UniProtKB/TrEMBL annotation:
Belongs to the sigma-70 factor family. ECF subfamily. GO terms for biological process: DNA-templated transcription initiation. GO terms for molecular function: DNA binding; sigma factor activity. This is RNA polymerase sigma factor. Keywords: Sigma factor, Transcription, Transcription regulation. Residues 39-94 form the RNA polymerase sigma-70 region domain. Residues 120-171 form the RNA polymerase sigma factor 70 region 4 type domain. NCBIfam families: sigma70-ECF (TIGR02937). It holds the Pfam family Sigma70_r4_2.
Length: 185
């Protein structure tokens, strides 16, 4: 459950931003930047070059779409994470399409895979997960919430979250192993 005072605070900041208050934007930015950057780095498999681009693009979209932010639905940082997740999925699809298009050229030029390191494989594996699986892994390992905290946040039982975590870890492991197998071919 979200703290009602946090909801009110974000509603006030959103309204101030819509009136053109730059100080309100700075507060939202300062409150959210570290969480957003950590999330994006995690999703990018620690590829800082990818993360920097996604962080910038996320903020540009947030500026354009601030009217759509509903503090009743999610806190601002989580809304930003949703934007970033969509950007990452689109970017990775585009990157994979480009790699496949260039694959014959790459194969002629070198023996190794176009997916060059574990960071890229992690990012690609995360992009294959369902939103629910990705979100539960993010809350457990990035936000370091307990199973009980996640269950409370989601309105589910701890046992249901434990089961979901087991399935999400397995889905990630399978996706990652496919990337490793692909790289070794």
């Amino acid at each position: 459950m979200r703290d009602p005072s946090q909801i009110q605070r974000e509603a006030f900041l959103r309204q101030a931003v819509l009136r053109g208050d730059e100080a309100a934007w700075k507060v939202l930015y300062d409150d959210s930047f570290v969480l957003l950057e950590r999330y994006i780095l995690w999703r990018c498999g620690q590829r800082r070059d990818w993360a920097e681009e996604i962080v910038q693009e996320t903020w540009l979209i947030a500026v354009r779409k601030i009217r759509e932010f509903d503090q009743q639905q999610a806190q601002f940082a989580r809304w930003l994470s949703g934007i970033a997740g969509n950007l990452l999925r689109n970017q990775l699809r585009k990157w994979l399409k480009d790699v496949k298009r260039r694959s014959p050229l790459i194969d002629e030029a070198r023996e190794d895979s176009p997916v060059e390191n574990d960071g890229e494989r992690i990012a690609l594996a995360l992009s294959e997960l369902s939103e629910r699986n990705e979100r539960v892994l993010k809350q457990k390992y990035l936000e370091q919430l307990t199973v009980e905290q996640i269950a409370s946040d989601w309105g589910e039982t701890p046992k249901a979250i434990e089961s979901l975590l087991t399935r999400a870890r397995e889905a990630f492991r399978e996706a990652f192993e496919r990337k490793v197998d692909h790289a070794s071919k």
